[in-house]
Amino acid sequence: MNIVKNLEGTTLTIALEGRLDTTTSPQLETMLATELAGVTELVFDFTKLDYLSSAGLRVLLSTQKRMNSQGSMKLRNVNATVKEVFDITGFADFLTIE
Questions:
Q1: How far apart are the first and last CA of the chain?
Q2: Which residues pair with 86 in a beta bridge?
Q3: Domain spans of the chain, in order of start
Q4: Can you tell me the mean pLDDT for 58-82?
Q5: Which of the residues 24, 25, 33, 74 has the least number of beta carbons within 10 Å of its own beta carbon?
Q6: What's the rounded mean pLDDT across residues 20-44?
């Protein structure tokens, strides 16, 4: 997985490329632990995200909980395969998907 981040003011955009799964989710989790200080808007760009596993869902859930207390979190450019995972698991009910 490749992570491309762009910080503009207090808005952090993170573009994910490849697979967010058991192998790669710790990489994202570690990066988020250090990058979210002072961020009030977090945007994930999933244009190039091919696959999302339960481990990736766990990272998104913990990040959503953190961002609820300091701002907002949005997911953009979610493909049909990943959107189906959100729908089946109920994550689409509480994540902001644009």
A1: 22
A2: none
A3: 2-97
A4: 97
A5: 33
A6: 96
The pair of structure tokens assigned to 79 is: 């493909």
Confirm if 39 and 11 have CB atoms less than 8 A apart. Answer: yes
List Cβ neighbours of 45 (8 Å cut-off, separation of 6 or more).
Answer: 13, 14, 15, 16, 76, 77
Q: Is the separation of the CB atoms in 34 and 15 below 8 Å?
A: no
Secondary structure element (H or E) that encloses residue 35, with its range? helix 25-35
The mean pLDDT of 2-15, rounded to a whole number, is 97
18: left (phi over 0), alpha (psi -120 to 50) or beta: left
pTM of the model: 0.94
Residue 65 and residue 57: Cα distance in Å, rounded?
12
What is the share, in percent, of the chain residues with pLDDT greater than 90? 100
- Tell me what pLDDT residue 95 has: 95
CATH code, 2-97: 3.30.750.24
In the numeric block, which tokens belong to residue 49?
A: 């995200």
Measured between alpha carbons, how far is 50 from 55 in angstroms, rounded to an integer?
Answer: 15
